[in-house]
Fold Ion transport domain-containing protein.
Amino acid sequence: MHKMKQQLQRERNRLLYAIDRLLDGPMIFLGFVWLVLLIVDLIWGLSKTLDYISITIWILFIIDFIVKFILAPAKLDYVRKNWLTAISLIIPALRVFRIFRFLRVLRSLRGLRLVRIVSSLNRSMKSLSATMKRRAFGYVVLLSLVVTFTGAAGMYAIEQPAPGFDSYGMALWWTAMRVTTAGSEYSPTTPEGRGLAFLITLFGFAIFGYVTATLATFFIGRDAEEKNAPVAGASDVAELRKEIALLTRTINEMKDKLA
């Protein structure tokens, strides 16, 4: 019985892996389209056609999530790892079931916009990570652009018409300054706006540290390539290893002769 259960789990894992590989490309593409539609919705609102496209993508995401949830051997662990994804799939229901007045009221709350922005950004981060794979620096640059443009749309939707956020261009400038840790003279006035600004600032500090370390590593590596550099480069280390190996061989040969 125990062996049959283990065999069933292995089969589920294989099927889940196969489905994940099959749907990986389409889901990544739809994730980027979903993010673009979110930005358009926050800034200008969606037309009927774009709204239908958004709902269709949302339904496809739900199907993908349900199938993977059913196949996942440890369902609780799967939900824990994808709780933000689950939230991002629940919130668009407020757009679909507009016939209920209380849902329309909930949909107007800024807090839901903040949750929607964060959860959608989480999905986009996963899509970017799957696309870029080992290109770490390229991933960070693209992710910074995604966070800047999406964060600006969120700040504009939440804070307008407050000074500094009365247009998307101004919100984009403010967000870019936050991401680069330069700061701005304007500050958000709503609790949701402050929460989003705090997340953007945290991201900016993290990225600033990563970029600084990457640039330092690059320049140290360039400096180490020069012969007169104070820092030992890879070629110097390789040459030193050769000399140590030669010295060790010579000592061993002398020992053999003396023996």
Remarks:
- Residues 1-123 form one domain.
